[in-house]
Specification:
By secondary structure, this protein is an alpha+beta fold. The protein has four domains: 92 residues, Rossmann fold; 68 residues, 2-Layer Sandwich (Dna Ligase, domain 1), CATH 3.30.1490.20; 129 residues, D-amino Acid Aminotransferase, Chain A, domain 1 (2-Layer Sandwich); 94 residues, Alpha-Beta Complex (Glycinamide Ribonucleotide Synthetase, Chain A, domain 4). Helix content is 31%, strand content 26%. It contains 14 helices and 22 strands. The strands form six sheets. A five-stranded parallel beta sheet has the order 3-2-1-4-5. Strands 12-15-18-22-19 form a five-stranded antiparallel beta sheet. It has a four-stranded antiparallel beta sheet with strand order 6-9-7-8, sandwiched between helices. A hairpin with a 5-residue loop joins strand 16 and strand 17. The structure holds adenosine monophosphate and glycine. The site of adenosine monophosphate has 13 residues, from strand 7, strand 8 and strand 17.
């Protein structure tokens, strides 16, 4: 078989690497890919990004199945384009991708289907939004409605901070039309976890659980980022909680989309807040896999990923199960100088650890320039390792990180800390 992976981050390197492990696969293209996918002999980068050009490529190369990594092409309708041309692709349609692309849509959807989430209201009028914030008090969360690449959420600790965030979005239009409508949401205390399923329109197959580390600095300090590291499984998601999340959040979401005439086919990611009372609530939906969660999750996958993907596009996920490595996988993101505000590009990567069975460097913002590898954006790579428990996976990952060398590199030294504190493996 020939497969095409759309995207060029660490998630897509992990997707392509996992797909290439399937004995059924002859060729894997990655569009546009990165320096890591360029170096892997089994993968082939294709410098295309427009949905129509990608559909043409899929037709001319007789690609059997296309898998989409990031949200932007999904929200732009790449799945609709491929389907109109009769090409197999795994991901939600443009309409279904609204679960991520519009936080207002997602919140109203959750309310319609009684999916537990924080109380919220949406606003386009600045005076009404201010009034509401004053009436609710702080802490309170202000969210841009549209896609904002991780920059659309402010967790305000005080009312003045919330008012400032409202001003930036509705008055100064810092995020343009993505912030022309906002959501003002109650702040939920608790511990976050990522819960991702494969959906086929009717059924859901849960992937291994994971936990991201969103802040830049150790101890969950500093600005929010796309994610500085992840661990799988997430001990906070006990088997009982897992069953509840499926029953109360994931399955109602899939049934709800089907009932509304937009069956959801694709990876569905719920960002969860597990309250001090043990109640799981959905903070958001993403219509894709998480990055960096995918890297540790897929390192633990023992089933043939291509089989799972085929069942997903055929609507038969109820007939398969996924098998997971019992070990823990832990990924440490190494980011560029200046990330997240102003990441510097072009630093030569002087050294990298050897890839091994139990340790992989998944590249993200790297680029092959003649015979050298350079940094090409914020999150440069995710060094991901397997171990018998969190401590062992962490040791292995950080040993490998010590072999990474480029000027200005930054990484957290405490990935997996919360998982270790829970004392589970
Ligand atoms: P989101 O993009 O909606 O997941 O928000 C980004 C981050 O903001 C989340 O990962 C949480 O850390 C935080 N956050 C979002 N909504 C809330 C909420 N209602 N209460 C507390 N924290 C939140
Ligand atoms: N790591 C968080 C995300 O992919 O949204």
């Amino acid at each position: 078989m020939k497969l095409l992976v759309v995207g060029g981050g660490g998630r897509e390197h992990a997707l392509a690497w996992t797909i290439a492990r399937s004995p059924r696969v002859r060729k894997v293209y990655v569009a546009p890919g990165n320096g890591g996918t360029a170096r892997d002999r089994r993968l082939c980068n294709v410098l295309l990004s427009e949905p129509k050009a990608l559909a043409d490529f899929a037709a001319s190369e007789a690609i059997d199945l296309t898998v989409v990594g990031p949200e932007a092409p999904l929200a732009a309708g790449i799945v609709d384009t491929f389907r109109q041309r009769g090409r197999r692709i795994y991901g939600p349609t443009r309409a279904a991708a609204q679960l991520e692309a519009s936080k207002d849509f997602a919140k109203a959807f959750m309310q319609r289907h009684s999916i537990p989430t924080a109380a919220a209201r949406s606003f386009t009028e600045v005076f009404e939004a201010r009034e509401y914030v004053r009436s609710r008090g702080a802490p309170i969360v202000i969210k841009a409605d549209g896609l904002a690449a991780g920059k659309g959420v402010v967790v305000a600790q005080t009312v003045p901070q919330a008012l400032e965030a409202i001003d930036r979005l509705l008055v100064q239009r810092h995020l343009g039309t993505a912030g022309a409508k906002i959501l003002v949401e109650d702040h939920l205390p608790g511990e976050e976890a990522s819960f991702i399923v494969m959906a086929d329109g009717r059924h859901a197959l849960a992937l291994a659980t994971s936990q991201d580390h969103k802040r830049l600095l150790d101890g969950d300090q500093g600005p929010n980022t796309g994610g500085m590291g992840a661990v799988s499984p997430a001990p906070v998601v006990t088997p009982q909680l897992h069953a509840r999340v499926m029953r109360e959040i994931m399955l109602p979401a899939i049934a709800g989309m089907a009932a509304e005439g937009e069956p959801y086919c694709g990876f569905l990611y719920a960002g969860l807040m597990i309250g001090p009372d043990g109640e799981p609530r959905a903070l958001e939906f993403n219509c894709r896999l998480g990055d960096p969660e995918t890297q540790p999750i897929l390192m633990r996958l023992r089933s043939d990923f291509v089989d799972l993907l085929e069942h997903a596009v055929e609507g038969t996920l109820d007939r398969v199960e996924a098998e997971w490595d019992r070990r823990v996988a832990l990924g440490v993101v190494v980011a560029a100088h200046g990330y997240p505000e102003t990441p510097r590009r072009g630093d030569p990567i002087a050294s990298l650890p050897q890839d091994a069975q139990d340790c992989m460097v998944f590249h993200a913002a790297t680029r092959q320039q003649q015979d050298r590898l350079i940094t090409d954006g914020g999150r440069v790579m995710c060094v991901t390792a397997l171990g018998e428990n969190v401590a062992a996976a962490r040791r292995r990952a950080y040993d490998a990180v010590s072999d990474v060398r480029f000027t200005g590199m930054q990484f957290r030294t405490d990935i997996g800390q919360r998982a270790m504190q829970r004392g589970s493996n």
